[in-house]
Design a protein that fits this description.
Radius of gyration: 21 Å
Distance between the termini: 36 Å
Largest sheet: 5 strands, mixed
InterPro entries: RNA3'-term_phos_cycl_insert, RNA3'_phos_cyclase_dom, RNA3'_phos_cyclase_dom_sf, RNA3'_term_phos_cyc, RNA3'_term_phos_cyc_type_2, RNA3'_term_phos_cycl-like_CS, RNA3'P_cycl/enolpyr_Trfase_a/b, RPTC_insert
Number of helices: 9
Pfam family, one: RTC
Subcellular location: Nucleus, Nucleolus
Structural class: alpha/beta
Number of strands: 19
Strand content: 25-35%
Organism: Flemingia macrophylla
Oligomer: single chain
Keywords: Nucleus, Ribosome biogenesis
Order of helices and strands: EHEHEEEEEEHEHEEEEHEEEHHHEHEE
Length: 379
Amino acid sequence: MGKASYKRLKGSRSFRQRLLLATLSSTPILIEDIRADETWPGLRNHEISLLRLFESVCDDCHVEINETGTKLKYKPGTIMGGRQYRPHDCGVSRSIGYFLEPLTVLCLFAKQPLTIKLKGITNDSKDPSVDTFKSTILPILKRFGVPSEGLDLKVESRGLPPNGGGEVILSLPIVQSLTAVNWIDEGFVKKIRGTTFSTRVSVQFENSMIKATRGIINPLISDVHIFSDHRSGPQAGNSPGYGISLVAETTSGCFISADTAVSQARDEDTSSLADDAKRDLMPPEDIGVGVANALLGEIIQCGVVDSTHQGLLFLLCALCPQDVSKVRVGKLSQHGVETLRNIRDFLNLTFFIKPDPDKQSVLLNCVGYGMKNLSRKVS
C-alpha cells in the first residue's frame, strides 16, 4: 500500500474543528508551526487531551507529536463509539464544554451509541457550560433529526476552576444521516429557563443571582423559571464558585443561551491580582445582571442560534444529505467565519451567504456533504 497523503496545515487555530473534520472526512493531516514563536511552544494540555479522547472513541487512529509539540501528524481511524468504561480526564486547562461539541458531532456517525464519563471542569467563563449544552445543543441536534432516545447529559458533580473535580456522563445515539433544515424563522421569545449553581459557598449566592436576573427579564416576559443547583460534599468538586446559565425558547423552536461562572478566590488580599482575576471576584448580583443582559443581546441579534453556537449550526448543515439547508443567524462571529473556512477546506463545500438588511441578519444556505453512517442498517 502507498504512503498516506497528508493535508498540510499550519498553526494552532481551529484545532478542534480541524481534528473533527479530518476524522469525518478520513483526511490525514500534518499540522506544523504550532505556537512555534511563543514562549511556551507546542500543543497545550487540553489539545493533547482532545487527541487522546478521539483515540479512545476511534479504532486504528494514529497520532505522532514531535518533542517540542510544534508538529502533529494525525491519521484518522474508524469511529467506534460504544460504552467507554474508563472515564476520560479532560484536565483543568479547559472545561468539559471544550470537548463536548466535537465529541458529539463525531460520535453521531459512530458504529455504536456512545456512553462516556468525562471528568474536569463543568463550568467556567471560557467555554459553554454543561448546562448550556444540555438545554441548547441537545435541542439543536434534535432539529437535525437526531433521535431523543439515548441523547442525554447527566451532571454527577460540579467542578470549577482551578481544581475541577466535576463529572458528567454523555450518552449519544447514532444516526444514519442528518436531516436538512429550512430554519430561518427565529420566532418570538415565549419563555426563559435558567439554572444557577453553587459549590462550596452559601446557597445565598444563588438567591442573589436569581433576584438580580429576574429584575432584568421579568418586566419583559412573564414565563420565567430559574432552578437552583446547590452542591456540597463530593458533588461540589474541588473548588468553590457559582454561576448561571439562561436559555430563551422561541415560538419557532429556537434556543438562545448565555452563561458564565465565577471561581471564588481564597486569598483575601486582591491588591496584587491582575484585572482578570479581580473580575472573577464579582458579586453574584453583577453576574446575574451581566448574563441577563448578554441573553437579551443575543436575542436582539435575530438568529436561530446564539453567536456561540454558529459554528455547530454550520457543521450540522454541512454534514446533512445532499439537499439544501437554509438558516438565519445574526452577525457572523469570528468562530462562525472560521468554521465556514474549515468546511470549505476539508469538505470542499461552500455556503451561499446573503445579508438581510430588513432584519439585520444573515441568511446562509448550502447543499450538504452527504455524510452517512454506513455501519447503521436502514430499518
